[in-house]
Each structure stands twice: as structure tokens, then as C-alpha cells.
Specification:
The protein is α/β, with parallel strands linked by helices. It contains 14 helices and 14 strands. The strands form 4 sheets. The chain has a 7-stranded mixed β-sheet, sandwiched between helices. Helix 1 packs antiparallel against helix 8. It is globular. Bound molecules: ligand T4K. The site of ligand T4K has 22 residues, from helix 3 and helix 4.
Length: 405
């Protein structure tokens, strides 16, 4: 690696202001134009109907079911609650397998539903649940369900995992919080397993501000979910032991409907931004942009890269520090893995023989960079140029950051 002798001017070294005058967040942060926003919210105001399965929520559910190709789309307050409600509606008990390399909400949803998480490691090449390990674990460990996760606008190979579970008569459902608009072998993500749960949080491609959607082709499960959600959306009373207020408000539905109209443009913008990062970082040693895995259509909603410290010259945490000094709010998703976070770190599957080595190693290497409405091609160019500078001056930055600790 060649380092210039002239002192580099970089914010992390404290010798110039940040490259961006205001913080540049990760996350999609797609918001409609003010005109559209005003028109839709005026209509809610005039109808004086704010929640309880109003006309906009009904319209959104119909449009989502159509887009996902499923018999039912059930809108809820957020995906975390959607996951809890799905576990409850499935009537599962005891242990549920899930990957530890996921947002903490996947594991927390099991706790709230009175279930015990059993972690199964991922394949470091795909970042998703490892089918071989899953098979071994299922054959050793009786569990009542599998909660698989689709990450980064990619997929965990739902057809294969569904076959593995079907052969053992175990239900599988999917945390597809990050996978709205993706397709696997020509099929939209949404129709696999017993149910799939999407997040409509502001950082996702389809934003309701906060929100979630459960998709399923199982009529009985759908009725249970509508009953658990407890709203005027109940079509047929079915017996459920627990209910919740999982309703989506009209304001949330209005936001999602506006963003759904723009969906194809947003996905195309994401794809272009992803491509720009990939091209501009192609020759930079030690940083690899991750392509969404296992999908033929992706929403490209995240820019995830893996850092190899020996080749890049800096470890992921120091690079993260250097980016934040420039006001680039990169994120270390998911670090640490869910199995390292209390209360999951005391579970038998979180340690010992079943150590989750692939997750531990990957969670030290991943970094999420800004992609979405808040960046344009100039910003991406600046971020990529800075990454090149960090690589060029890696020894100096590493020494500076070490001294500052
Ligand atoms: N399963 C998986 C695999 C998931 O990824 C998630 C959520 C879930 C389940 C649960 O879904 P939800 O229950 O949330 O629907 C974010 C999101 O809160 C969360 O939805 C997401 N995954 C997770 C991966 O990331 P944070 O706390 O790291 O992001 P946040 O809110 O700090 O936003 C990022 C940046 O955007 C910040 O710098 C501030 C900026 N921002 C954010 C919002 C909301 C804005 O400028 N304006 C805004 O309105 O969790």
C-alpha cells in the first residue's frame, strides 16, 4: 500500500470540517411531494375517519395483495408487531429456529409471542440462513417452526427452505421486512411459507412512516390475524386467545399508497445508485459491495459492503469512525449478532458447541452506506472518493484513531 507523505486533509484527522455539512443518513427515507401529501391528508381530514380499517387501509391492502400475488395482505402498525401476531396466529409453541444475523426485532418477536429462539448460523457467502446447518439442526432439535429472514433486498432461498421444512412437517414463515418488491425465480417475495412480514418503516423502500404488512395465502391464518389485530377489518370471527391493537392508521396507509405509486421509480433509482457504488468501488482493495443474494428482482434498498482489514488497511470500526467524522452516518448492521445481545446471549444455541462463528465473523466486517432519497450521484461520488482517500492514508488514520482511544 502506498501512502503520500503530505498530511492528508480529512475530518477524522481533525484538520478540516466534515465533507458533508449536514448528516447523511442511511435508509430510503422516501417521502411524497408536498402537493400529494397535502391532497391526501386533506381527504382524511374531510372524511374525519382516522383509523379502524378505513378506506385507505382497505385500498392499500387490496393493492399490496395484488402486487404480492397473495390472497391476503393484512396491514399492521409495524413489522415487529406483525411478526409477533404471525407467531401467535400460527399457534406455535416452544422453540423456533432463526438466524442470528438479523435485526433484533426478529428475535424479540419470538420472546413477545412466548417462544424460545434457537439460533442457526448463516452462510457467510450469502449472509442468509445456511440450509445445510438448518437441516442438521432440525434433525437434532425438535422445534415447532422456522422463522427465516430475507436480507438486503435479497432472499434466503425460500423454495429450498420451505421444502426442507415441509419434509419435516414444520411450518416456516419469513421475516421479509427488507424484501418488499423482490422476486425469487419469477415469484414475488410474499407468497412463500405460511406467511411473510414486510416492514413499511421510513427507512424501507415502501414507507408508511411506520407500518407493516403480513401476506399469506392461508385463509384461516388471515382470519386469525385480522381478529388478533382487533379492528373493523374482522370478516369472520375466529377464535383467538390474544388480541392486540395492531391497526394501521389512515395516515400510514395514505403515505404507503403515495409511495406505492412511485415504487418503480424508487426501485430504479436504488438500482442506479447501487450500480454507481459498485462501479466506483470495483478497484478499491478490501471493500466489496454485496449484490442482493438469491433474487432475480431486487429492491436494492441497501448498500451493504464487506470490509477486509488487511487489504483495506483499516478495520470496519475505524472506517465507520472516519465516515462519521465526514457526517456520513454509515451503520454497522448487524453488529453484534442477535445471539450476542441480552437476553439471547444466555441461550444454549448462542454459545458452546453450536457457536455462531459465521455470524460473529461477518458482523465484524459489514457496513451499510447511504443509499436512497437523501443521496444523489454527486454525494455517492464524494463518498467513494473519500473511501479511496481512507485507503490511501490508512496507516495514518489507524494510528490517529488508536491514539485518540
Ligand atoms: N426484521 C428486519 C430484518 C428488519 O430489518 C426490521 C427493521 C424489522 C424486522 C422490524 O421492522 P419494524 O418493526 O421497524 O417495521 C431501522 C428501522 O427502525 C428498522 O425498521 C429497520 N429494520 C432497521 C434495520 O433499521 P434504526 O434505528 O437503525 O434506523 P433509524 O430510525 O435510526 O434511521 C436511520 C437514519 O435515518 C437515521 O440517521 C435518522 C434518519 N431518519 C430516520 C427516520 C425514521 C430520518 O432522517 N427521518 C426519519 O423519518 O432502525
Amino acid at each position: 500500500m502506498h501512502e503520500d507523505s503530505a498530511a492528508p486533509r480529512l475530518a477524522v484527522l481533525g484538520n478540516r470540517p466534515p465533507a458533508f455539512s449536514s448528516p447523511l443518513p442511511v435508509g430510503q427515507l422516501n417521502f411524497p411531494s408536498w402537493e400529494k401529501y397535502e391532497q391526501n391528508f386533506r381527504a382524511i381530514f374531510e372524511r374525519q375517519y382516522y383509523t379502524n380499517q378505513g378506506p385507505l387501509t382497505e385500498e392499500l391492502e387490496a393493492k399490496l395483495a395484488d402486487r404480492l400475488g397473495t390472497r391476503h395482505a393484512i396491514c399492521v402498525t409495524n413489522a415487529t408487531l406483525g411478526l409477533i401476531m404471525t407467531a401467535q396466529a400460527l399457534g406455535i409453541e416452544g422453540k423456533v429456529i432463526l438466524p442470528p444475523f438479523t435485526f433484533i426485532a426478529s428475535a424479540q418477536s419470538l420472546l413477545w409471542a412466548g417462544l424460545s429462539p434457537v439460533f442457526c448460523d448463516i452462510d457467510p457467502a450469502t449472509h442468509h440462513l445456511d440450509p445445510t446447518r438448518l437441516t442438521e439442526l432440525l434433525d437434532r432439535n425438535p422445534v415447532s417452526a422456522v422463522l427465516a429472514v430475507n436480507l438486503w433486498g435479497g432472499s434466503c432461498n425460500p423454495p429450498l427452505l420451505t421444502d426442507i421444512c415441509k419434509a419435516r412437517h414444520i411450518p416456516i414463515y419469513f421475516d421479509s421486512a427488507q424484501a418488499f418488491g423482490c422476486k425469487v425465480a419469477g415469484r414475488p417475495v410474499g407468497g412463500f411459507g405460511e406467511a411473510e412480514v414486510f416492514s413499511l418503516h421510513a427507512t424501507k423502500i415502501l414507507s408508511a412512516g411506520e407500518g407493516g404488512c403480513i401476506s399469506t395465502n392461508n385463509d384461516e391464518l388471515a382470519e386469525k390475524l385480522r381478529n388478533i389485530r382487533s379492528s373493523y377489518g374482522v370478516r369472520r370471527p375466529v377464535e383467538v386467545t390474544k388480541t392486540a391493537n395492531g391497526r394501521m392508521s389512515e395516515a400510514q396507509a395514505a403515505m404507503a399508497l403515495m409511495n406505492l405509486e412511485d415504487f418503480d421509480d424508487l426501485a430504479a433509482r436504488n438500482r442506479n445508485q447501487h450500480e454507481q457504488y459498485r462501479k466506483q468501488l470495483a478497484d478499491l482493495p478490501g471493500i466489496r459491495v454485496i449484490e442482493p443474494h438469491g433474487v432475480d428482482v431486487s429492491n436494492y434498498q441497501y448498500l451493504i459492503c464487506e470490509i477486509d482489514p488487511p487489504s483495506f488497511g483499516l478495520d470496519r470500526n475505524t472506517l465507520h469512525q472516519a465516515l462519521r467524522a465526514e457526517n456520513i452516518l454509515a451503520r454497522r448492521y448487524f453488529s453484534p449478532g442477535a445471539h450476542r445481545c441480552p437476553p439471547f446471549n444466555t441461550l444454549p444455541s448462542a454459545a458452546g458447541q453450536d457457536a455462531l462463528l459465521a455470524t460473529d465473523a461477518l458482523s465484524q466486517r459489514v457496513l451499510q452506506l447511504p443509499l436512497g432519497a437523501r443521496v444523489d450521484s454527486t454525494a455517492i461520488e464524494t463518498i467513494c472518493a473519500l473511501l479511496c482517500e481512507f485507503h490511501r492514508h490508512a496507516p495514518r488514520i489507524a494510528a490517529h484513531c488508536k491514539d485518540a482511544r
